Known about the structure:
The protein has 120 residues and is of the alpha+beta class. It has one domain (2-119). Helices cover 15% and strands 44% of the residues. It has helices at 53-61, 66-74; strands spanning 2-9, 11-13, 29-32, 35-48, 81-88, 93-99, 111-119. It has a seven-stranded antiparallel sheet with strand order 1-7-6-5-4-3-2, with no helix packed on it. The longest helix has 9 residues, at 53-61.
Amino acid sequence: MKDSFLGAPIEVHHDRPPALEKRPGPPDGFTWEGRAYRVVEVLGEWHDYRQRGKTAAFYRKERGSYRAKAAKRRGSWGVGRDYYRVRTDTGEVFDLYYDRAPQGPGRRKGGWFLYRQILA
Length: 120
């Protein structure tokens, strides 16, 4: 099995609005380069809540604290990525991720990206 790295921003669609802005869950569909895809199956899910930059230095100092342990397990606001491997209605398999970092000044929400396409 091979993969093709894409790293492209996408627009996602949820049939019902996510209950939590911080953890929207896998989308029901997405649009990439003007083409709409419907997610028919979620094949996998994983999370990366590593701290980066200034927040990483702060949490290194707080290493043993409850706050630091919780942040590593659940993530802090605006930190981390939630990854989903999905199969679409076209039979294609993609890895998508939600980057929890705010996407621009004055914005609270993160953004969705098409990480890679898994090729058979």
